[in-house]
Amino acid sequence: MDRIARAMCVTFMACTAVLTGQTISVTVPAGGESWETGRKYTIRWTHSGKMADTVKIVLLAGGAWAADIVDSTDNDGSCGWTIPAAVRPGTYVVRVKTTDNAIMATSKAFAILPATAAEPVIEKVTPAQAEAGTEIVLKGKNFAVNNAWRVSLLGSASCTTAQIKSNNDSQITAEIPKNLSPGEWRISLTLNACDGKKISNEVPFIILPLREADMAATNCGFYDKETFTAGEKAVLALFTVNHGPANIKKYKLTAWSIMGPPAAFNVKGKSSAEQIVSYDLDPKGNDTKHDAIEVEIKDSQPGVYTMNISVQPLDPADIRDAQPENNLCQLPFQIRLPLQAPPLPPPLQLQEPLSPRIINILLPDLVVEKIALSPATPKIGDRITFTVTIANHGSGDASVRSTTWFAHHSCVFGYIDTPPVKAGEKVDVSWTNTEELRTLGIIFARADYSGQVPESNEENNDLELRYPYQ
């Protein structure tokens, strides 16, 4: 059927519909409205007379087809439509016609515009009051439209922004800056940092005084010795200080052993121990607490181990530890097999009297003669190289290799393999601290730490250096 025939057919059906009282009238859009893409609207119409039960709705621009709104829907007078983003801005009409094309009607002209961003609304901030440095959650709507927005905090005389950790359309997680003063603040979303261009409502927020501690395990050690045999008991000592601004009323000590051969290591009968200490640890480094834990070396294999002791604040319950990496102290120790007396030799059967002889046993005597530092005058944060001079003051050669031990009073330590040293000679061994120095003052060194070399004097193997610092 050509266009003229189709036009005559449509005209004939329209005339027939009018003559028989069949009509459709589009009431919404009524003409002159501005609809936006992305939003949902309701198209409405009325009809009279007997006609098809379903209708088709299309969008026209300048008399030409622009889009199908719905291919078939009940002829009940209304149909919802969310305008696709692909529809270009412009002037349009809506046509409603029965699916048999017998009856149709067209709306008056209306405009379709691009979508406009919905304004964000903050409905709740959780918690409503917290310390600086705390994470907060903003709940509301329309948060995800623009990722360039800022969470701004406005005080009585200052303004700053919180770091956004995550966000979606209904929730933003942000961290309050640690340097904010306690008091009343207002939270809002802004286009840029503190430029006054608020794009949301303001919500009151209170920053509480800081409840922050800074526990540090400054020193640790065994009482009396660092070498044990299996089954032996020992006592650990730990010095703890609080550098933070808040007072600590209770804290927990935990001890365990690592970095050695496989072993059944016991702390009070367990593989690790927890000890709760109720003690007011004053803030700002004005108080140092000394604690002791009993340790049992049970069924352990010989070797070099490391004892770890950590501290953790418990009371007040909401207190935070500013630098938990300072809470660990590491302590080296050695486990040796129990000494057993050798079996007695059989009695000598003398055939003739022996002439007396004098037997001279030439033994070495290893001593730490000097400890040198590089840099010579260290400061906090430096990495230091320690050089130790091991001398043999004995009459015999130290013909086997031995171990030199370093221990800093802040619990940094190391072991260095030491070559044989002939009588009257000396060697230098060095070790570089791989971590930045956190405290200053004392370094210890011990020659033949593991006791491989029999010596004429076993009591002079240590040297302590108290060094200057900037």
Your description of this structure?
By secondary structure, this protein is mainly beta. It has four domains: 3-113, Immunoglobulin-like (Sandwich); 121-208, Sandwich (Immunoglobulin-like), CATH 2.60.40.10; 213-336, Immunoglobulin-like; 366-466, Immunoglobulins (Immunoglobulin-like, Sandwich), CATH 2.60.40.10. Helices cover 4% and strands 49% of the residues. The protein contains one helix and 34 strands. It has one helix at 3-20, and strands spanning 23-28, 34-36, 40-48, 54-61, 64-74, 78-82, 90-98, 104-106, 110-113, 121-126, 129-131, 135-141, 150-154, 159-167, 171-175, 183-190, 203-208, 212-213, 215-222, 227-229, 233-242, 248-258, 272-281, 288-296, 303-315, 320-321, 328-336, 366-374, 385-392, 402-408, 413-418, 426-432, 442-446, 462-466. The strands form eight sheets. It has an eight-stranded mixed sheet, with no helix packed on it. Strands 2, 4, 5, 7, 8 and 9 form a six-stranded mixed sheet that branches. The longest helix has 18 residues, at 3-20. The protein is elongated. The N and C termini lie far apart (102 Å). The model is unreliable at 3-19 and 259-272 (pLDDT under 50).
